[in-house]
Design brief:
Number of helices: 8
Order of helices and strands: EEEEHEEEEHHEEEEHHEEHEHEH
Number of strands: 16
Structural class: alpha+beta
Helix content: 10-25%
Strand content: 35-45%
């Protein structure tokens, strides 16, 4: 069995008799209207090929070669390929910015092999702002695969940079009363019917705090969310149920805001500065920079320690 004698970066326009070793890292089929009638409704197959040096190239099989090779080429497998033709890489979408793309012909030779020296994947990361410039002027984006928390160094580094607990000193610019200050959740209880919200039963519904604050510092502003424990322990000092009872039966701990009654101690946060401990993760980064508050304080000694460090 002869070895590969060229790499993707060595290819030039026209027919290629050289042999190269590649892995199929992505594969897809689409209806080929041009060849539908002539070849019994066959489809066109597209592939993204990767070689040992990390270079990639698009490949296409259509027409009679599709009948010969369509069932042989498998995503994730490695092959020796020779006697193929290179054509100009034009059209949309383009997965790679290569000058050429590889076309299979009826005389193309392939040989399936085990090649441990070729990576399973290779990524070319670019800033999101640059993606729209690839392809046509409509800035339409076409994705062939979505990978979540893929175990590669780039993802690990990104998560380490953007996930964890952080401290931030800022001023409360607004209490978002429009979104309310509590929500309803369920606890197990055997004498209550099916809960549609939780898609299960038995449940017992209780109110819990959820307060959204617009907080700013010299660099900008963002939304912080305070949940039950933080609000109860650090601000209000009463459970959500106790406060709702005050609304029902009256009390000086409640004020009537623009969107209804709200605990006075929550509105008292407005225009005050705090040291916030926040939880930051990738989901927060995507969802309009909204962060969960783990703790907050206005103690001068802790704030001084924060700035001195």
């Amino acid at each position: 069995m002869s070895q590969a004698n060229c790499f993707i970066r060595d290819l030039s326009y026209g027919k290629q008799k050289s042999k190269m070793c590649v892995r199929v890292i992505r594969q897809w089929t689409i209806p080929s209207l041009t060849h539908f009638k002539n070849f019994g409704g066959t489809k066109m197959m597209g592939m993204l090929l990767l070689d040992e040096q990390g270079s990639k190239i698009e490949a296409t099989i259509k027409g009679l070669p599709m009948q010969k090779f369509g069932s042989i080429m498998k995503e994730g497998e490695c092959y020796y390929i020779s006697n193929f033709r290179l054509a100009r890489n034009v059209g949309w979408p383009r997965l790679k910015d290569n000058t050429f793309k590889l076309n299979f012909t009826i005389s193309t030779n392939i040989e399936r092999i085990l090649a441990t020296t070729i990576a399973d994947y290779r990524y070319d990361f670019v800033p999101f702002r640059d993606i729209g410039g690839r392809g046509n002027n409509d800035c339409d984006l076409i994705a062939s695969r979505l990978m979540l928390n893929h175990d590669i160094p780039e993802v690990t580094s990104f998560k380490n940079k953007h996930e964890g607990c952080f401290f931030m000193y800022g001023i409360v610019e607004r209490v978002d009363e429009q979104k309310g200050w509590y929500y309803e959740t369920c606890l197990p209880r055997r004498d209550v019917d099916f809960c549609k919200k939780c898609s299960g039963y038995p449940k017992f519904i209780i109110p819990r705090y959820k307060v959204e604050l617009l907080v700013s510092d010299p660099s900008g502003s963002t939304t912080f969310v305070l949940f039950d424990d933080i609000v109860v322990m650090s601000i209000v000092g009463k459970t959500t149920a106790d406060i709702i009872d005050k609304i029902t039966y009256g009390g000086d701990e409640i004020v009537v805001g623009e969107y209804g009654p709200i605990p006075k101690k929550i509105t008292s946060l407005l225009h005050r500065s705090f040291l916030f401990q926040i939880k930051k993760n990738i989901i927060d980064l995507i969802s309009h920079h909204t962060y969960v508050v783990l703790n907050l304080t206005s103690r001068d000694d802790l704030i001084s320690k924060f700035f001195s460090s």
